[in-house]
Prior knowledge:
By secondary structure, this protein is an alpha/beta fold. It has a single domain, classed as HUPs (Rossmann fold, 3-Layer(aba) Sandwich). The chain is 50% helix and 11% strand. The chain has seven helices and five strands, in the order βαβαβααβαβαα. The chain has helices at residues 10-22, 39-56, 68-75, 82-100, 118-132, 145-155, 166-173; strands at 2-6, 26-31, 60-62, 105-108, 135-136. Strands 3-2-1-4-5 form a five-stranded parallel beta sheet, with helices on both faces. Strand 1 (2-6), helix 1 (10-22) and strand 2 form a beta-alpha-beta unit. Helix 1 runs parallel beside helix 2, helix 1 crosses helix 6 (145-155) and helix 4 packs parallel to helix 5.
Amino acid sequence: MKIFFHICCAPCAIYPYYRMKEEGLEPTGYFYNPNIHPYLEYRKRLDTTNNFAQRVGLDMVICDDYDLEGFLCRVMGKGALRCEQCYRMRLDAAAEAAGKKGFRLFTTSLLYSKHQQHDMIKGVGREMAADRGIEFHYDDFRRGWREGILESKAMGLYRQQYCGCIYSERDRYLKERTSHCSPVR
């Protein structure tokens, strides 16, 4: 059975890709991630995903629409709910593309990361699939966390250190949130 596979980045795609192949599924990769910031980071992740896809023979659909403004409009001011909006934006696009391309099933490599909100991704994925009349394939890919890390290192793939958005980059490097602004007099 064919499956449309949203990929957030190559390291997160490795274990799910091999797992789906073992289960008899035939994935087609899909890259749409306007959340990744800055643009050079976005290009690194896209190039690394293409590199991985070429190595394993994974057909890819690339939506190279770096809609940073659209992403920021969806998440700005949402606080803790910004991740849900990010998942909605990307999984809605993936479900729509899957349906248009004739796929009845889709999933995402977001289900691989131990740092993502797994239950939220599953819920949003199922909702987006139902809206498009297709099915969301749920698998807890986190069980292959260590295996995926080792394989990505063995392949020499670029491994990022944050989820991709401007907020996660800030949180990674800014350990203590204090205001450095002086009052205007």
